[in-house]
């Protein structure tokens, strides 16, 4: 599962016994040599699916890590790309990779990086598009509610949030038991060791994503199949792209309840 440049099992255990933030600081130099980095095929499929939904001027990568999602945003967004993460180590790697890629060769605006908690973003109405890749397993349900609420506020009216969600493995399959065992081990670790390391694979199915996005005030929540990532035996896609929009502002001449200050952001 790991290349020779990746972390050893001992290093992974040591990282998991710290916190999420400290663990990723330690993992950052080798992160792109692990299976945890979003595969290029997922990034390419996401780019294809979003291409016809623009145009987009400003893009935000939530929990950007080492910056894999910038490959999507720099191809779609014309004016600005911003990556947010809590891990200083991951942001340092993202900055180094962006510099190595170079603006001309990578195309699109160079990314700006900000160390911040994605549950309390310092933006209001700033972005046309927000994406995230593989990060939601690091958030418990209450944290995801805060994350989606602050992401909605960071989007302009009519702005789009997009992220891929893989289909769950078949019950009883090797993949099913692998994820079940991982989550069980993490729950045991967090019951016995502090600070907690939140990383669960089975807490964010598509049905939960729809419900939490709707509760956060997003509308038009839907999915697009990503068929290039493969099909299940029943013909359903193995991965879908979840799309949710911040509602547009109501027309000035429409009657309705008074708008709050937050609604004007």
Automatic annotation (TrEMBL):
Residues 60-159 form the Methyltransferase domain. GO terms for molecular function: methyltransferase activity. Keywords: Methyltransferase, S-adenosyl-L-methionine, Transferase. CDD domains: AdoMet_MTases. GO terms for biological process: methylation. It is an enzyme of class 2 (transferase). The keyword Transport does not apply. Its EC number is 2.1.-.-. Residues 245-265 are annotated as: Disordered. PANTHER family: METHYLTRANSFERASE, UBIQUINONE BIOSYNTHESIS O-METHYLTRANSFERASE, MITOCHONDRIAL. This is Class I SAM-dependent methyltransferase. It comes from Streptomyces chisholmiae. The lineage of its organism: Bacteria, Bacillati, Actinomycetota, Actinomycetes, Kitasatosporales.
